[in-house]
Task: inverse folding
């Protein structure tokens, strides 16, 4: 694998990741490092001893030269123990030494291999070029009587090339392994983030759905409980009717809560068998509010409510439900108008308006998140929602939703 191919394979931020051995001795040797260094030392020493034995077999070699060869070769092998701290420096020194000292050739090859494994291409190419340039020097200064000058030079060129190529292959493989590990770690991290995001979205969906459904029921409970509190002398029939509404609203709130949690806990995005509110069921919402004592006028100009997409119809229903809930909280006794207009291809418009309250009332506490949730619902449906006070002191909620030509 070439360096260009490797850069294409890796992400831009990891084109040349740092290997554990690239840290120039900043970390302590592990057991594996000691084993590798001992093996490299023994290999270099074995090559040096074989070379020294060949030199000793030549009767023309003086004893002083042989002694110098053995000493220099031993020092060259010992220098390999510091190659992790100064790999390039040790390799350059051994390349220069091996040009005049054959016994240090084994240590020089080991140093070249270490540089190729632990250093980028540029220093490896520089040290390799130096070794190739000095390859003819040793056969010229100390020729082998059994080998020609050309043959010794060729061997002196091929061995460094072979060792450097082997080291670069090892480095490329290690970089690939590190990259795959990093990608696996990033994939695990991204999977955890996606799981956390899914949990957060599920919690938001639960909170939004609970607010939309339960706020309507609980507001009825608050209004009628307040009426019983401030009118203890009300006729028995009115007290009984208010108590019935409270009982029915509490029962329906609990039932809605069970259904919502059951749906949200089910796998996937399916709503299961639970019937969902749509535009066609808007009449039942208005009837429920009227039975609770509200004055509601419904102006539904959509000729075929069943033709509206289920998701769009559910959004219209929730907007109307939230508008009625807010009117019941902040303008009790006021007449609320719910208007739904639109046609296929033109879009749907739902508007909930109420005038200013005409009688004093006790403020029902609220979270203030309902209108925020409605705005988000409308945006998710591809539409928009506006809300705000009217000049007469009332309040208006108006949403525009898409209704495409084709379902």
Result:
């Amino acid at each position: 694998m070439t360096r260009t191919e490797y850069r294409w394979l890796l992400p831009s931020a990891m084109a040349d990741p740092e290997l554990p051995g690239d840290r120039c001795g900043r970390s302590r040797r592990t057991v594996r490092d000691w084993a590798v260094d001992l093996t490299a030392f023994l290999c270099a020493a074995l090559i040096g001893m074989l070379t020294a034995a060949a030199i000793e077999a030549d009767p023309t070699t003086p004893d002083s030269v042989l002694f110098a060869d053995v000493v220099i070769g031993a020092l060259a092998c010992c220098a390999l123990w510091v190659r992790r701290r100064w790999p390039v420096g040790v390799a350059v020194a051994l390349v220069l030494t091996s040009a005049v000292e054959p016994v240090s050739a084994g240590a020089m090859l080991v140093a070249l291999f270490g540089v190729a494994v632990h250093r980028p291409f540029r220093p490896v190419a520089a040290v390799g070029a130096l070794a190739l340039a000095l390859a003819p020097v040793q056969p010229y200064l100390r020729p082998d009587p059994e080998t020609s000058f050309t043959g010794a030079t060729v061997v002196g060129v091929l061995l460094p090339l072979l060792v450097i190529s082997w080291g670069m292959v090892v480095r490329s493989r290690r970089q690939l392994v590190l990259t795959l590990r990093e990608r696996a770690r990033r994939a695990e991290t991204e999977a955890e983030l996606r799981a956390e995001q899914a949990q957060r979205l599920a919690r938001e969906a639960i909170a939004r759905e609970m607010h939309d459904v339960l706020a309507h029921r609980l507001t009825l409970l608050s209004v009628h409980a307040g009426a019983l509190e401030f009118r203890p002398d009300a006729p028995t029939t009115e007290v009984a009717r208010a108590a019935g509404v409270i009982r029915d609203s509490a029962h329906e709130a609990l039932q809605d809560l069970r259904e919502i949690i059951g749906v949200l806990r089910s796998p996937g995005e399916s709503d299961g068998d639970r019937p969902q509110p749509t535009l066609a069921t808007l009449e039942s919402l208005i009837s429920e509010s009227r039975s609770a004592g509200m004055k509601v006028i419904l102006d539904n100009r959509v000729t075929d409510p069943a033709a509206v997409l289920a998701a769009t119809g559910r959004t219209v229903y929730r907007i109307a439900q939230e508008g009625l809930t807010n009117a019941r909280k902040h303008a009790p006794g006021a007449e609320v108008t719910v208007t739904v207009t639109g046609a296929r291809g033109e879009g749907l418009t739902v508007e909930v308006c109420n005038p200013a309250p005409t009688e004093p009332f006790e403020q029902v506490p609220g979270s203030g998140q309902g209108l925020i949730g409605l705005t988000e619902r409308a945006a998710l449906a591809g539409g928009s929602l506006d809300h705000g006070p009217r000049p007469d002191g009332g309040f208006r909620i108006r949403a525009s939703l898409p209704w495409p030509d084709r379902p």
